[in-house]
């Protein structure tokens, strides 16, 4: 449980952290904090109030070379890769515990760094990160290899081995959580990892590297390189000695990473990218109030900076007016507030650039003829931070920019349809295929729609469900591979077939 419970308490902790210069902002290689080789740093500006939190090491090619060499050496030494799975399990569980023990500090760093409300940064992000580490750790001594069905004088062994050096490049919307969805299976499987957090949210990753050491993960197993995508991110993606690159971020960069892999060593590339997910409400939805509550949360939670945001609300004509009235009411619970206030549900947008993106999409909605029925503007500018109102457009058609492109802000596009076939057609008419919601009382319609939707996740009569047991990821340009569940281990292991001939 958190020991701070008011805005004042959180604020005074934040002030102390910043003025005492306690925020770790260096790279972490071989168990030590280090400046970048070039000595360059960049300002970490809080979107909460515009304050500079610290200057973060800006890593580049040389840092990537050092970190990858160290990760390789650590991997080859066997200090982590060759210990029994049951031992790695114990350390991973300890890692989860130490993360939880430092929940408040990590939550505060996350909130200050990227603007999400403190009420979620501990309970959703840090606890979710710890769960991912624990779940993957607990799994690793329960996964068996295989024997092939061979002739009597042969043995065919099919074994899984760690890939070696994994580079993980992660986004800013759930910084510690996305990192741990990768670290869980990557570390549990025995790999060494070089983690590159987003330049917009590096602080929890940097702090977590030290926590891993405290938990007993050997030095060199988890290295962290803060810096920009086009510098250190690119260096890792082009590196000849990175075996696997795992990524969460935009589709645009995901495609670029496939090119980098092709131009370098053909490293395995696993991508979790964007979405424009349809949340489909049929006339026979079992509970319209619940659907409205869920639709509002699906676009306003985390300021809409969620890859699975229910950003296209597809509503059947018969319930459109009633549903829109209910959603407008629900949205009152999601008006922006100060992120350090535990009552706040919607915090700051990650930075000024993202705010400008969101506002320009809102403008395009108006310009292309959608009807703005709620929100639409920046708020709380006087506090120096960047905040935007949850925004609803109705009368959207699926060809408008706000229906096609991922906004990554709290902007809901409401599209009306008639019947299941049209819902499926509009739902699938997207370059993305990450997630979808379906609201109906008809079990056949629910299953038929779920089967017809080309998306990695379908939620029936709720939105955004699942836990560590369910794979997370998408079809089409939403990416490949899956985070979470045992399927995630596919990304962090190679399969070896050893065939033995008996005399
Ligand atoms: P982004 O693609 O701009 O950046 C993601 C990461 O890639 C950052 O660490 C960035 O520094 C790095 N990067 C940028 N250019 C690079 C390059 N040339 N080479 C190597 N690395 C580079 O994405 P973002 O704005 O940080 O995050 C938002 C995006 O993430 C959204 O599109 C969202 O849908 C997606 N996302 C997807 C999932 C999922 O699981 N599918 C989850 C969360 C977020
Ligand atoms: Mn930041």
UniProtKB/TrEMBL annotation:
Key word Isomerase present: no
An example Gene Ontology molecular-function term: aldehyde dehydrogenase [NAD(P)+] activity
A Pfam family assignment: Aldedh
Keyword Ion transport annotated: no
Listed EC numbers: 1.2.1.-
Ranges where the Aldehyde dehydrogenase domain occurs: 37-497
Annotated InterPro entries: Ald_DH/histidinol_DH (IPR016161), Ald_DH_C (IPR016163), Ald_DH_CS_CYS (IPR016160), Ald_DH_CS_GLU (IPR029510), Ald_DH_N (IPR016162), Aldehyde_DH_dom (IPR015590)
Active site: 272
Alphabetically ordered keywords of this record: Oxidoreductase
Family, similarity comment: Belongs to the aldehyde dehydrogenase family.
Name of the protein this chain belongs to: Gamma-glutamyl-gamma-aminobutyraldehyde dehydrogenase
